[in-house]
Structure formats: structure tokens, C-alpha cells
Input
Amino acid sequence: MGDAAASLIARCHALVASGLDVELLVVDDRSPVAREGAEAEPFRAWIRETAAAGSRVRLVVGDGVGVAAARNRGAGAARGRYLWFVDDDDDWGPDGAATLLDAALAHDADVVMADAVLVRHGRVGRAQVVADGRGAGEASGARVVEDLVAGRVSGHLWNKLLRRDLVVAAGFPDLLRHSDLAGLLRLLPAAGRVVRVPTPVYTYRVRDGSLLTGDRMRWRDLPDCLDLAREVGPAPAVEVFAVVKVAVPLFQDVARRGTSLPPSEAAEARAWVRAALTPRRIVATLRSGRPVAALGALVMRAAPRVYAGVYRRRRAGSVRPGRG
Output
């Protein structure tokens, strides 16, 4: 058994043996990586053995059609009141689960948001703190939607505990990427009470070849998130969201992928970005206290080739020599 499978089994065992009132639902999305990975079968064998022994571990097999469908299937099969979505190759455990669950039960919360740590594999620099738990206290779902659209709250799932019935009712849209952000935009308006806990509960590891960094993309995913934001967010914040969370990262994704994206799709995406980066939105971004983002958007609109070249060079310079 490899180190990755052994580490995952240890984390799962620690969670189910912690004494917490939890079930561990493992969703096998049947992706090519999951089917062919050398680490997958030892873990599947452990799940089958553990489940057969009457443990609170269950395996749910997906259709191999994407992470959104896998999350929806897992949510539908779960029996608990709350859901915590975690990835198999990150760092999480019973302490984080206890922190989230204690806060949810103490406040009868619909959503609990905590801090997390984001580590980029092979990159120079310190880990990034995802501080969604800052400003500890309670808020309405509508207020958190404003924070999400304004960029004060991340669109990640792994540092949030969500009431299961809200997840099932909202569902995750069928996006290749960013279905977590889109799902939160759907779910949060129905949340009555959201609690913040300023404690790190998760370490997310960004690796080359992952969903966020790999070559697979559908460029319309981020514009689809913008459409959802328009439905639920305040107009001034949506203008900034269109720049900071949609247009700029979409352009960077296209620049980073280079020739791996079909030329016609790359051209469509760049045209969409240019149309989205209106002077009004760039000024709104500047007034929101994001001068660097506003300047980048201005250069991106006026001289896209210059921006793309600088972005690729800076990205290459942030990777450690000899590593992915």
C-alpha cells in the first residue's frame, strides 16, 4: 500500500473512531484518475472491509460525470443533519469536524464557516490563510451572500459545514469547475443562520494536475457563476465580482493553458473577458479598495497579450526549479 492510501485510511479511521456522531460517506466519482490510480484499490478494499464490519463508513459510487454530480449523489445518500465536503488528498480530521459540529449544534446553525490553510505544491512562499471564520459571530445567509459576491468570503466548501436539506434542495450545478462557488450562491440565500468560527479546520493542497490546475476546463463555468451572482447579490458587489472573481481568473486560466485549449474556445473566452471588463466595472473595482486588481483588469483589457506574457513569466518564476 502506498503512502497516499495509508494516509487517507488513517484520516478516515481517526474520524470514525473519534466518538463524534458522524458517518463517513466516501463518494467514488469513477473519474479516470480514480479508476486508474495505484492508490485507489487499497482504499476501496479498506472501505469494503470496514463497511462489512458494521462501521459508520459507506461507499457511494458515482457516474464519472464530474465533481458536481458526485457531491449531489453523496448529499442525497447521506443520513446526517450536516455535511462536510472534504477531498481525499488534503489534510483534515476529527478536530476540524468537532469544531464545525460543536458550533452548528450550539447555535442551531444552517451553515458554519471556519478558517483553512491553502498550500500550493512546489511553489515558493508561505501558505495562504482562507479566513472565512474571521469576525466570529452570527449572520444571515443573505448577508453572507453579499460577502461571498464581494470577495470577503471564499467559494470553497471544505471549510464550511452545511445543513444537508439545504444542500439537497439547492443542488450543485453541472459545472466542470467552480461548482462549489455556484452551489454556495444557490444555497446561502435559504440559510437563516450562519456562524463563523475563527479556527483552521482544513488544509487544502493545490497540486499540478488537479481540477483547478489541470488542463481540463469549460470556459463558460465562471460566466455561469456570474449569472447566479446577479440573481442573488447586490448590484454594486456583482460589478466587482465580475472583474475579480470571473473575468480576471478566466483570462488567467486561458493564458496558463496555452495551446491545450482549442483556439476557437480560447478566442471566445478572451472576447467574453474583454466585453466583461467595462470601464464602469474597473472603476467599481478600484473604488472597492482593490487598486491592484483594477490596474490588472485595465491592462488586460487594453493590452491582453502583454498581460498574458507577464502572467505566464511570473507564474513560471514562482515554481521551484525541477518541480511541477
Q: What stands out?
A: The radius of gyration is 20 Å. The first strand starts at residue 24 and ends at 28. Residues 37 and 91 are 19 Å apart (CA to CA). The chain has 14 helices and eight strands.
